[in-house]
Amino acid sequence: MSVDFVGSAVGTAFGELFALVKEVVQTIAVFQEQLKKIESTLDSIYPIMRDIDEFNRRMDRKDLGKIRALINDGKDMVKKCLKIKKFNLYERYKYSKKLTELDATLFREFQLSVPLTTARNTMEILTVLTDFREEVRMHHSGLANDGAIQSGLGASGNLAVPEAPDFIVGSEVEASLRKLKGRLLEEGVSVIVVTAPGGCGKTTLVAKLCHDLDIEGKFHNNIMFIRVSKKLNLTDIVQKMIQHKNFLVPIIETEDFAVQYLQQLLEKIGQNPVLLVLDDVWTESKSFLDKFVFKKIKDYKIVVTSRYEFPDVDFVHHLNPLNKGEALQLLHRSVTITDRSMSVPDDLLEQVVNRCKGLPLALTVVAKSLRGKDPSFWETKLLDWSERRSLLRSDSDVLDCLRKSLDDLDGEIKECFLDLSLFPEDRKIPATALIDMWVELYKLDFSGVRAIADLNKLVYRNLADLIVTGPKDSNKDDDKCYSSYYAMQHDLLREMAILECNKGEVEERERLILDLTGNSFPDWWSEQKQPTLNARLVSISTDKTFSRPWPNLQLPKVEALVLNFETNIRTKTYVLLEFIEKADKLKLLIVTNYSFSPAELRNFHVIGSNLKRMRLERITVPFLSMGQLRLPCLQKISFFMCNISQASTSDDAKISDAILGLVELHIDYCNDLMALPDDICEIKPLKKLSITNCHNLSALPEQIGQLVSLEVVRLNSCTNLSQVPDSIRTLQELISLNISDCLSLSTLPDQIGQLVNLKSMNMRGCLRLSKLPRSIMRLRNLRKVDCDEEKEGLWAPLKSSLNSLKIIASEEEEANLNWLND
């Protein structure tokens, strides 16, 4: 047996004693009997000592002091035994007794110390857990719901500070950073407002401020960045703040209760400095801002960005547009393709700068539209600006400037840009939703590769931002699922897109965007007026105060319908519009609940039989009872943070009968899912099965091998999944298998080598998976394996026979336990 203790006092000494005893036993016969007993004792306690020593090393502990002293004494004693001469009978007798006593003492001390240490550690763990329960309970006496917990995980709940660019132009920006930083580091000032017109870079400035080393050093993980926008929801924001700090999230019935929870949260975490950023606060939200101010909480700072001034706050900072020199510098930087000098005359550059009013957003967007173009193109653009001056509203110059940047977009890219306006302001837009839309409307490839390329073109032109969540390498998306991709759009750009969409008579618009507040409908849409509209894309958004029945609507040409809503604490339901039943051309339905808790979807039966793609987020919908529907054309269905495991009400209703033509099934963060129904395996066209972050999923159907068309299987972060069914070996079309972060998975199917077309496999984070089946040697088409560094050796035999195999081994990342919030 080898001794592999490394680096700690007990472990190193133990290993040295063990090796020394073995050496002396083999070379000196005089003390052989006593040393063999010691060797036996050390051999029996070695595995336990190794584990204890490793845990102590991780916890920076120095337990088992007596045993450490005994081991050191034992080393000295054995070394002395080596020096005793054969004829020195007295010394031989004396050390023989000492070795016998050492053996007995080691055994006795081990039996005594280890149970006591274990008991102490157990009590410590129980104490920590008790304190943890108390800390996360967030109990409020008197609440009727008794602090019931709801899940609310996902991209929309993330309050982390957004990334800031490394390079920011402008001496004023640097001065602003210094001034704001000084205010945050000093005592006293609690509310700071950064005000400027839209497009001046307020959000970028504050993001840069939050990433300053001194600011991070003071506030640490108590920095929360909240996008407020025009439609604010105090209860939702407070719930996200509670979740962000890893407390259990209560149901909050009223705004008054929300304020109480907010104060309790801030008092809880306010023992350390707290920085709260409220981004894009509108002037009518002043009363909302007041609810975040608690003067008694020490070192609690609020930074507000707004187009408007709030004169009665502690400190207002005006961020001015760039001066002419700074604007020229930014334009040069944004319009330059390479290091070569531009051929555009200085007077044209100055005219563009003057037109953009020194606004960074306008400068970067316009620069990208002119990038690489001939000077004559610049002159034509400037003539267009001067001839078609828009007078739309207070930000008209900016909007007019931005709108001209759309002129040189080709048809498809411009349409994609306008489609972003179908989603609510200041929300992350799942790239998968955009892929579904663009594949159906613009006949792009089914995989979504071209759709992602179009999104990247918008990002390149500064018309959208791309956010990639998840692990560092998640943006590779070899299996083309793109579940970690999100798009965001500046509110001015969204406003510009909506203005573009709203041209002409409402009956003839290509896109119909309805943003309803309360129970107010536009004049043209009421019970008395039910016009026929020719819109191809429709977006309807409602807030939590909406409660009226839907008036009828005639949309015979609609192909994509996006429904965005929030529910209040009492209803928790959303009713699909009746007109959907008559929308014969409807191909895509996206239903997104932006409330913190899932909402029940009613009128599910109105969904038409021609629907091809459907995406549901934060919805309670009986997926396991969908057998009562008939959706023969449905090719893709996605559930994100939904409650889907309601039991079927009919034994005869099979899901496979409802969605017999399904090609893709995506289920993400659906924690009530414990098992898939067996009849899923009867959907023969299914090519992509993605079940991720479903932490209660414990088993897959044994008949999964019947899904003979499967090309992609994604099971990452299904932490309770203990095995993959053996029948998976029959999936001859399987190309990609992802089992990353399946923490309970300890084995792979014995005959996994029969997956003859498998090209990529991700097993990163499979901590219990310690060996591979022998059949793995038969994966002749395997080209790529992602694994932890310590698992790389498992693949060595295969790599020797497959020259094209690429093993990407990385150090084990710190576990992301955000899902525990659920």
UniProtKB/TrEMBL annotation:
<dbReference type="Pfam" id="PF00931">
    <property type="entry name" value="NB-ARC"/>
</dbReference>
<feature type="domain" description="RPW8">
    <location>
        <begin position="1"/>
        <end position="148"/>
    </location>
</feature>
<dbReference type="InterPro" id="IPR008808">
    <property type="entry name" value="Powdery_mildew-R_dom"/>
</dbReference>
<comment type="similarity">
    <text>Belongs to the disease resistance NB-LRR family.</text>
</comment>
<dbReference type="GO" id="GO:0006952">
    <property type="term" value="P:defense response"/>
</dbReference>
<protein>
    <recommendedName>
        <fullName>RPW8 domain-containing protein</fullName>
    </recommendedName>
</protein>
<dbReference type="Pfam" id="PF23598">
    <property type="entry name" value="LRR_14"/>
</dbReference>
<dbReference type="Pfam" id="PF05659">
    <property type="entry name" value="RPW8"/>
</dbReference>
<dbReference type="InterPro" id="IPR036388">
    <property type="entry name" value="WH-like_DNA-bd_sf"/>
</dbReference>
<dbReference type="InterPro" id="IPR032675">
    <property type="entry name" value="LRR_dom_sf"/>
</dbReference>
<dbReference type="InterPro" id="IPR055414">
    <property type="entry name" value="LRR_R13L4/SHOC2-like"/>
</dbReference>
<keyword id="KW-0677">Repeat</keyword>
<dbReference type="InterPro" id="IPR002182">
    <property type="entry name" value="NB-ARC"/>
</dbReference>
<keyword id="KW-0611">Plant defense</keyword>
<dbReference type="InterPro" id="IPR027417">
    <property type="entry name" value="P-loop_NTPase"/>
</dbReference>
<dbReference type="InterPro" id="IPR042197">
    <property type="entry name" value="Apaf_helical"/>
</dbReference>
